[in-house]
Amino acid sequence: MKTHYTMTLAMLAGFGLGAVAVQGLHAQAKSPVYQVVEIDFLDQEAYLKDYVPKAQAAIKAAGGKFLAAGGKTTTIEGEPPKSRVVIQQWDSLEKVQAYRDSTAFKDLLPLRNKLAKFRSFVVEGVPL
Question: Alpha carbon 25 to chain centroid distance?
C-alpha cells in the first residue's frame, strides 16, 4: 500500500514539474519584432559616411540586429521602396521604443534629419 502512495506522489510531482517547465519554455518563446525602415537620401555621401556608422553602433548596443541594410531591392508589386531599406530584428517592441527614447538616438536626430527622410514601422514576428 505504501508503494502505491509513493508512486502516486511521484507521478503528481513529475506532472507538476513538467507543467512548470513547459510554462517556462512558452515564456521564453516570445517572438521577435522586425523594424523596417525606408530611407530617402537628402545627402547620400554624408549619410553613409557620417550617420550610418554611429547609428549602427547605437542600434547594436541597444540590442538591435541588422538583417538587411542597403542591399539591392527588387520591386515585385506596388510602389518601389525608397533609396535604402533597412530591416532590423529586436527582442520586443519595448526594446525598439527604449532605443528610440534613448540619449543615443536623440543625439543622432539632428544629423539624421539633415541627411535623409525616414519611414519606419515594426512588424511582430510569428512564434518560433
Answer: 20
Beta partners for residue 122, in sequence order: 35
Tell me the C-alpha distance between 14 and 35, whole Å.
42
Round to whole Å and give the CA distance between 38 and 83: 7
Per DSSP (E only), the strands in 33-124 are 33-41, 65-69, 84-90, 116-124
The C-alpha atoms of residue 33 and residue 92 are separated, in whole angstroms, by 6
Q: Which residues pair with 85 in a beta bridge?
A: 38
Cβ contact 95:31 at 8 Å: no
Q: What is the pTM of this model?
A: 0.74
Q: What is the pLDDT of residues 66-96, one digit of tens each?
A: 999 988 899 999 998 888 999 999 999 999 9
Residue 36 in grid coordinates: 523596417
Adjacent-strand bridge partners of 119: 38
Which residue from 13, 10, 30, 9 is spatially nearest to 21, judged by alpha carbons?
Answer: 13
